[in-house]
Amino acid sequence: MTQKLWAEGLGTALLLIGVVGSGIMGETLAGGNVAIALLANAIATGCMLYVIITVLGPVSGAHFNPAVTLAFWLRGDIAPRAALAYVAVQVTGGILGVWATHLMFDLPILQSSTTLHRTGLAQWWSEILATFGLLFVIFGGLQSRPEAVPTLVALYITGAYWFTASTSFANPAVTIARGFSDTFAGIYPGHIAAFIGAQILAVLIAHSTLGRLLQIKG
Predict the structure, then answer these.
(1) pLDDT tens-digit readout, 42-62
(2) Alpha-carbon distance 49 to 55, whole Å?
(3) Domains assigned to the chain
(4) Could you give phi then psi for residue 200, rounded to 5 degrees?
(5) Residue of 28, 89, 156, 183 with fewest CB within 10 Å of its CB?
(6) How many angstroms separate the CA atoms of 86 and 83, rounded?
(7) What does the alpha-carbon distance between residue 153 and residue 147 come to, in Å, rounded to a whole number?
(8) ∠ CA 54-217-159 to the nearest 5 degrees?
């Protein structure tokens, strides 16, 4: 179990390094072009997801996301105590990843985001769709082509950066950690709870619908 927790913490930290670091670099080099900055952010995040899921998947299952852990718990695939431990190290790892990124870019390590536009019905609905889609990709991939899951998740998140209004957080640990960064990828801390509520609601919707859908044969 210790090995699994280290894998979940490290993987989530690396994910946040990819998300926040590419956001900082993209914004710095884009010369004010937000589309270019978002493109860099999306590609780097997708690349990091492919790497960490491929490398750490055999160790912990590569959740790196409390919403995914909750979905597996609802399916009975992970024990409650293990699920709680996974969530704790995912959140901790995410915050440590943000701080490591700030240090790498010579920014103040301790920050609080002032990004205010991530709220409202459109953003919350976007997070429901983004999280539902992620679970669809994961569980559909596990049933049809397990070896393709790293690629499927990486491609989905890269695309979802562009086709969702919220740029597809779809991850409570990522949402919390991004509140600690006043950079391109940040989210105002006061808006975090609603995002997480939308993500959890998406897990419940996915649990009640995807099970039936993905059990259909032929």
Answers:
(1) 999 999 999 999 999 999 999
(2) 10
(3) 2-214 (1.20.1080.10)
(4) -65, -40
(5) 28
(6) 5
(7) 11
(8) 40
